[in-house]
Amino acid sequence: MRLRLATWNINSVRLRVEQVARFVDEQAPDVLCLQEIKCREGEFPREAFEQMGLPHLKIAGQKGWHGVAIASRLPIEDVAVLNACREGHARCVSARVAGVEIQNFYVPAGGDVPDRALNPKFDHKLDFFETLTAELARRDPKDPLIVTGDLNVAPGEFDVWSHRQMSRIVSHTPVEVAAMEALKASLGFIDLPRAAVPEPEKLFSWWSYRAADFRKSNRGLRLDHILVTPGLREAAFRAGAAASRVHDDVREWERPSDHAPVSADFAL
Length: 268
Fold this sequence. Notes:
Elements: E1 2-9, H1 17-27, E2 31-35, H2 46-52, E3 56-60, E4 68-72, E5 92-97, E6 100-106, H3 120-136, E7 145-150, H4 163-166, H5 174-187, E8 190-191, H6 192-196, E9 206-207, H7 214-217, E10 220-221, E11 224-228, H8 233-236, E12 237-238, E13 241-242, E14 244-246, E15 262-267
Parallel strand pairs: 1-2, 6-7
Antiparallel strand pairs: 1-15, 2-4, 3-4, 5-6, 7-11, 8-11, 9-10, 12-13, 14-15
Helix pairs in contact: 3-5
């Protein structure tokens, strides 16, 4: 069977539920992982998702802030949440779908100052990565696991519009890049979007609202990720290539999120 998973920082699910419905209609994801839903569980638009054909839901909500959800066409089984957030925010939600464990994260952005001692938000971000990496390192890399979501780090030189300038800005500083690399190394994770679009081609999933024309300025960052364990390598690669893409056309829609959806297909 084909399993199509998509991740999307929706920046308010109630505000953009019509965009979600359009994306689901056009791209037919079997599993949709959302971040920044910005509502409590009881406020989530369940009926709309049922009408989309995604009736199976796991939601971790929070009033006005953060919040993550997994919506699925297929039945969901419960699995333990890898809750790496020391502040108790709604930043982690998990499920097992078709035998595959999915961990969906919204990693803290980290504020503006890339210094752990001076900026508690940046310290929180790095602590999140460290806690999550330590938890993952206890797992078996042969198990089918997807770690996905808005991880808020653009890890490579070609994942940012300017490596030189962004190396001093939160999201691409050397310490964050190192934290992301440690996370990937914990289980030998495969970065599917980058496997599908190898370097040195630029690849972004986020563009600031400040630019009147995001394509013209193209000052983007790749903050949204789909990482899979070696146990999913065979399922993720077809004819030697990963079927993964950034749906940047969605960023052109009316009242868009500043993030575009990212998807990957699996042959299970």
